[in-house]
Amino acid sequence: MSDNAAITVSDVKIRYRIFKKISLLKTILAPYKYKKTELFEAVKGVSFEVPKGQILGIVGKNGSGKSTLLKAIAGIFSPDEGTIDLHGHTVSLLSIGVGFQSKLSGRENIYLSGLLLGFSRQQIDEKLEEIIEFSELGDFIDRPVKTYSSGMYSKLAFSITAILETEIMLIDEVLSVGDAKFKKKSYEKMKSLITNTDRTVVIVSHSSETLKQLCDSILWLHDGEIKMQGSCDEVLPIYEKFMS
Amino acid sequence: MGKMRFFKDVKKFFNYVIFASKAELKSEVADSFLSWLWWFLDPLLYMLVYSFIAVVVFKSGVQYFPVFVFIGLNTWTFFSKTVKSSVKLVAGKKMIVTKVYVPKFMFVFEKIGVYGFKMVISNLLVVITMIGYKVPITWRVVWIIPITLVLFVVTFGFSTIIMHFGVFVEDLLNVITVVLQLGFYLSGIFYSIESIGKNIVGRVPDPFGTMLVKLNPMALVITDLRRVMLYGENPHWVMLIAWFVAGILMSWVGIKIIYRFENSYVKVI
Nearest CB to A77: which of B19, B168, B263? Predict the structure, then answer.
């Protein structure tokens, strides 16, 4: 184990089995029916480490456990076995529209999302203008979010998560939102966020092209297990061949 | 260590809870400018309904009847709305829960903030009617503070536990709705459970009346609020302390199971 690791994942297993919805009425009327539980192990004993400042890309086909693993690293749910250690770093999962209240203004929603992500009022105050400017919403920032077009909505959501930065960023599919111009701008912003040497990043993506441009190393998940791990040049060609 | 985590989390997410409560109240008012009027109109109209039932149908009245009903109704509404909203609380916050970690009992605090604020607003009716009826005030009104504290602790305790089971049990809402309906009738909202002073005759004969006040925390809180506000009497101190301790214990259990299982909620909702 190296000293400068930002993320240490050891022997993590994640199952979707134990918890299933039950109904009191059905339990009383047909108890035997409810005994059946399906076992589904999404992640089957995965270990890896991401050194501080590195960018790791995770590839794999649909249902290979990529997003599940990412959510576990984000702390959204805990692994059934094994541990994930973030060594005290702050973490966020870059995603669209965390807890927006559609009847409130964009400005108020910036505070709501920011507080939810664990930032203080003061930190949000400091970044507020930058977020509004980046989102290109202009006067719309003081109108209710429900009046926004879907493009404006995602612009705001992207700006919040991109400008309120954390030490570890988890990205599920590189976001490209809004119109062509904003798409380019958000991709550039994303790139500058990701390549910042202080920041540790994990990106889940299907696009080998994007990963090749951004990542230091690649982790290939297949059916919940690590199939291959190494540099972009080692892993991606074999992965592409496998998928085609 | 677990206790430390609780206080650390409360501190960390305190601002979020305040902001989210305000946001929820605000978006309620955002639709129609006058919707806050309903925070008064609701208890006012219900009071008229219960006056009709109590005075016309059952031919029984209680001194300061409107104030008497408002106190019971506002307190009960706070409790039952908070508890009921806890059942589907986690599923309702899916957008948040699937994307970022929040200690889930913070949502209960948010609801307590929302309904607590509404209770304060609708309690202006209590103040107004008390002035109207020239209810003599004694120094014992200060006991409102400890009684309200018991109300909050008990409400939080019930709500956290119910929120947890609400994630896994599909038809819990049906059950809770019926139980709350029963609780409404057993809490003495529009009648007095026990006899107070010379003017109030209890409608539930002893020993059941006494048992009800002891075993139903809402009956206790409502009865004691009326005692200190309207009749200048002391609250049931022993039972209040007992329910305070019970409330703390329930909250402790609730927080404990939420910490233990909250990271599995996402897999279910």
Answer: B263
pLDDT, tens only, A66-94: 888 988 898 887 788 899 998 888 888 87
pLDDT digits (tens, 9 = 90+) for A4-18: 888 999 999 988 755
Residue B218 distance to chain A (closest CA, Å)? 26
A18, A77, A99 ranked by CB distance to B96: nearest: A99
CB B21 within 8 A of CB A115: no
**Of B186, B11, B25, the residue nearest B103 (C-alpha):** B11
Mean pLDDT of B183-195: 87
* A222: β partners: A225
In this complex, do B101 and A74 lie within 8 Å of one another by their Cβ atoms? yes
Q: Are the C-beta atoms of A62 and A223 separated by less than 8 Å?
A: no
3-state SS, residue A221: strand
Predicted local confidence at residue B1, as pLDDT: 47
Domains assigned to chain A: 53-79+88-243 (3.40.50.300)
Q: Which pLDDT score, from 0 to 100, does residue A38 have? A: 66
Q: How confident is the model at residue B120 (pLDDT cuts 50, 70, 90)?
A: very high
Angle between helices B217-230 and B65-87 (to 10 degrees): 150
**CA–CA gap between residue B195 and residue B92 (Å, rounded):** 43
Residues A59 and A239: beta-carbon distance below 8 Å: yes
Structure token pair of residue B25: 């109240």
pLDDT at B88: 94
For residue A42, give every residue at least 6 positions away whose Cβ sits within 8 Å of its Cβ, in sequence order, or none. Answer: A14, A15, A16, A65, A68, A224
Q: Rounded to the nearest 10 degrees, what angle do helices B237-268 and B217-230 cross at?
A: 130
What's chain A's length in residues? 244
Residues 6+ apart with CB under 8 A from B155: B78, B79, B82, B83, B112
Instruction: Say yes or no to pLDDT of A244 above 90.
Output: no
Inter-chain CB proximity B15 and A115 less than 8 Å: yes
Structural contact between residues B68 and B130, judged by C-beta atoms closer than 8 angstroms? no
ipTM of the predicted structure? 0.80
Nearest CA in chain A to B168: A21
| A9 strand-pairing partners | A48, A84
Pick from B20, B27, B267: CB nearest A19: B267
The answer, for A120 touching chain B at a CB cutoff of 8 Å, is: yes
Q: What is the pLDDT of residues A119-130, one digit of tens each?
A: 889 999 999 999
Give dist(CA A152, CA A158) in Å, integer. Answer: 10
Radius of gyration of chain A (CA): 20
